[in-house]
Amino acid sequence: MSVPTVADPARAFETYLRVRPRLPEASFPATWQAVESLEDIADAFDLILLDAYGVLNVGERPIPGAADRIASLRSMGKRVMVVSNSAGYPKRRMMERYTELGFDFSPSEVVTSREALLAHLAASSPRRWGVMMNLATPDEELADLDIDHMDEDRAAYDDAVGFLLIGSEGWTDTRQALLESSLRANPRPILVGNPDLVAPREIGLTREPGYFAHRLIDRTGLKPRFFGKPFPEIFDLAVARQSVAHTRVLMVGDTLHTDILGGRHMGFATALVTGHGSLAELDAGEAIEQSGIVPDFVLNQI
């Protein structure tokens, strides 16, 4: 089964606008500055945090020039890290993918929302989790968890003591309805490993776990806990690996409500990339005005 798609980017953006009250608060600059590339503004920063989808790659395709730009930033003495809401893969596979895409990141330079979720689970009491994700391939990072894949069997939902929404590949409206029904009958904790509503892939924008989590809120009134941008745990993991003042950090991403909002919530400067991500088919200026989420910089690609 393929990942469900959202055909209209405008609808995805409207959904982000609707759920904005559920996201962190932040302050923003009065206006934004258009720049040609990250090299034009890099001198003001020591650490550059990069989103993946829409900034480095679109699905399994690298964005042309992205690897060269990172090499250039390194040659300027800048530290770079990936901060991604891609929670469906173990770290080992993430690093293999970046190598296949032509990037030279080390494991310490990649932080994902999955890592933030796993850190929380390691500090929590064990329980049986119903999990939203494709379990077709081995996943050593989840081996010690008591998990049950949620499919079309209602028992898998009712037997769970909590739910992990990690990856939406294979998720269907039928499974979503079963989850909603089980939670209405018996409310339990919901942890969301990927807060994104959508992600840019070769087939278009795909609905991600955050989309289904907000549907759960709408239809059950329950409040999931989110791990990943724009929430702070993932950023805390990133800056903990570096000795740098927040004012010397630049967060670069394609999505106003995750990358830019999350970066500003942390006190970072932000740069919105518009050429390949969630705003590629929209007017970025209008989106900024509508959302009230204002980046420091706007550029077509890094």
UniProtKB/TrEMBL annotation:
InterPro entries: HAD-like_sf (IPR036412), HAD-SF_hydro_IIA (IPR006357), HAD_sf (IPR023214). Keywords: Hydrolase. Pfam families: Hydrolase_6, Hydrolase_like. One of its GO terms (molecular function) is phosphatase activity. SUPFAM superfamilies: HAD-like (SSF56784). GO terms for cellular component: cytoplasm. It comes from the Bacteria. Gene3D superfamilies: HAD superfamily/HAD-like. This is HAD superfamily hydrolase (TIGR01459 family). It comes from Palleronia aestuarii. The lineage of its organism: Bacteria, Pseudomonadati, Pseudomonadota, Alphaproteobacteria, Rhodobacterales.
